[in-house]
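User: My advisor, Dr. K., asked me to get a structural model of this assembly before our group meeting. I'm new to this, so sorry if the format is off. These are the inputs:
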Amino acid sequence: MKTKIAIVDTMFARGDMGKVAIETMEKNAKENNWEIEIMKKTVPGIKDIPVALLNLLEQGCQAGIALGMPGAAKVDKTCAHEASLGIQEVQLMTRKTVLEVFVHEDEAKDDKDLAEIMHNRASKHALNLLWVIFKPEELEKRAGSGERQGRENTKSVGL
Amino acid sequence: MKTKIAIVDTMFARGDMGKVAIETMEKNAKENNWEIEIMKKTVPGIKDIPVALLNLLEQGCQAGIALGMPGAAKVDKTCAHEASLGIQEVQLMTRKTVLEVFVHEDEAKDDKDLAEIMHNRASKHALNLLWVIFKPEELEKRAGSGERQGRENTKSVGL
Amino acid sequence: MKTKIAIVDTMFARGDMGKVAIETMEKNAKENNWEIEIMKKTVPGIKDIPVALLNLLEQGCQAGIALGMPGAAKVDKTCAHEASLGIQEVQLMTRKTVLEVFVHEDEAKDDKDLAEIMHNRASKHALNLLWVIFKPEELEKRAGSGERQGRENTKSVGL
Amino acid sequence: MKTKIAIVDTMFARGDMGKVAIETMEKNAKENNWEIEIMKKTVPGIKDIPVALLNLLEQGCQAGIALGMPGAAKVDKTCAHEASLGIQEVQLMTRKTVLEVFVHEDEAKDDKDLAEIMHNRASKHALNLLWVIFKPEELEKRAGSGERQGRENTKSVGL
Amino acid sequence: MKTKIAIVDTMFARGDMGKVAIETMEKNAKENNWEIEIMKKTVPGIKDIPVALLNLLEQGCQAGIALGMPGAAKVDKTCAHEASLGIQEVQLMTRKTVLEVFVHEDEAKDDKDLAEIMHNRASKHALNLLWVIFKPEELEKRAGSGERQGRENTKSVGL
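Assistant: The format is fine. Below is the predicted structure of the whole assembly, which you can bring to the meeting.
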């Protein structure tokens, strides 16, 4: 039986992160013989993500990804915070992992940079989610290593 | 059987967004032969919206719209945040979508601008809610396209 | 049978808003032949309001009013936010409306102004709560009209 | 049968508020012939208070006090906010009152002042909690009177 | 039967706090003849901690530790706050203690300092968690004593 994975993205975002996430997942799943089935839904904005995810997870998805792009204004930051709290709640209600892939519009210097961050973060987290489901030891061996999504990794400090 | 839709608005707001939302829904429902029945309730202010919505959704509405206008003061922003968290909770309790249509008083340059933003956002989200219920493929095909409600759309960046 | 209404106020507040709310409710209830019974409780500060309200609502009150006066310091604003989130939760747990009547100490120019705001807001919301319970059409017809509690109403903008 | 009261304090705080609270409660309980039994627990920091309180309240305590001292840094303020939200939740889960006695380190001019605020607030709220349980009319008659814990009372304004 | 303890850490953190926590626990457990079994999980970032902890606690762990390193940017602080609220919720759902060991990247002067804080805080809280489970009297006798994790202790003020 295939493992169902939920992806929810928005009309508001300025780039098709859903497409990137799906391509990354399908490529990696194929290489590793992981049988997956992606259930995707698009909502207007980030605050509409939590209930859409809850529905997909309760319809049998084993884990999910939330893709969104909060704007640069203060009110957008508040929206992102509210969406994130909703996503926390959804995870605790379902006991299932949802990786949140939010790219803040003001993280980027320009549109090219924005596109790169969106691509980098969506693809890395798509792979992370597969590891959460199929290969947790990939996460274990990177514990405390300074992994980043969206930019280059940073370095670890010896304890 | 008609699909029931909940609309909750406030006395506090400085424009009748409920009327705009209803007109938009009825016009579009008629054009598409979608049978809808709108259940509307008015409450004093935005913090009174969540419980009113919960009641309407538990009385059979399939989805809802929250219409409000937070003021420009800091305390009003906090109120909006509290109302938004309540609306998140209502959606997770009922598993039903509620689109939040808040127009912040300080988004606008003047009263004319305020009226335009209120009209634009209320009508666009009224249509979005119909799509959520009856035609999700309209949302799917706009994924990551930079759609905005209240102002003009922005542009997408290639990933 | 009389309709029970919960009122919770605090020792911390610098004015007896509970007295104003009760007088307004009793006067209006009498004029309209609405049979009400008020159950009132006083707690130390605003953060003690939510659980007191929950108890009164679960003991049969149909709706409630929370009366409080947050101080001017930043920590007081945070307390008010926490109390408000608790009041949201209480409403969603009980499916009952609670109108929050908070007067922030720094809204006022001086003590006289503070007294006026407290009186105005407490009495207007006391009447609003009666409308929520007995006469929702009074709220309906004021939708989007710019009603304010504590100060004068503002004006509506045509959409 | 004795009424059980929960007290939770922290190792982080810079003063033994638990001792003050217990002494105040035992003295007042004796004078009024109120039979109480105090169940006390110490946790590392304020964010560890909510679950400890929940356990004590579910083990039969009728009400509780949370004693903590948030530091002056911004991250400490956030911790206090998170702890306070947890304490709100605990009260709504158990339907029992918990008075939160937090003394922020930056409320005080110096160590002597800090000690005085801690003593004043802990003892006043210890008495408040006894009133909540045994003598609510003491709270009722101080409604809107400007009572403060930690500093001198302020004055009420006529409405 | 061994007491199971949950540890969740992240790939994002720039130091292997999980290793420090485990070493501290195993050393102290051995010295005191406490039988423990550690169940450890690594997740991408701090917001992925709450649901992972919930799963481990529901699989039989009696208590847990959350190890994370929020970055210095404002968005990282918001993430930390959201993770902390999730951890609060997990504790209240399970009635079990989770000590949160977050080291903010901007607490440190440089990488060496960061490593020292991470080591100090992880080891001290690892011991605290053992005390919570096996020897609460160690916590009791340090009530209000100004204990710190990450830096040196501060001093207590006489009340």
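One thing worth pointing out at the meeting: Chain D has one domain: 3-140.

User: Perfect, thanks a lot.
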